[in-house]
Write a structure and sequence with these properties.
Keywords: Cytoplasm, Phosphotransferase system. This is HPr family phosphocarrier protein. It holds the Pfam family PTS-HPr. It is found in: Cytoplasm. 26% of the residues are buried. The protein is an alpha+beta fold and 84 residues long. The protein is built from 3 helices and 4 strands. A 4-stranded antiparallel beta sheet has the order 1-4-2-3. Helix 1 packs antiparallel against helix 3.
Length: 84
């Protein structure tokens, strides 16, 4: 299992577009991908679940990934979060 924390840099937080991009990336990998925020765990392959978390600017989120391609998955997620 790989875990990695990220600080949200986008002024609007995790809104529809980054949530959709994160979910699409999570679905591209065989690994199980989840996002943790404020003590709750969300299915990262579901954009509605990600948006429902209400992640704002400067919040910290943690991604947990478990599976054969977990390293590739965390890198893809990191790229999305750095570019949004």
């Amino acid at each position: 299992m790989v875990t990695r924390s990220f600080r949200i840099k986008a002024p609007q937080g995790l809104h529809a577009r980054p949530c959709a991009n994160l979910a699409a990336a999570a679905r591209d990998f065989a690994s199980d991908v989840s996002m943790c925020y404020n003590g709750e765990e969300y299915d990262a392959s579901n954009p509605i679940a990600l948006m429902s978390a209400g992640v704002s600017y400067d919040d910290e989120i943690i991604f947990k990934i478990s599976g054969n391609d977990e390293e590739e998955a965390i890198e893809a997620i990191a790229i999305i979060l750095e570019n949004e």
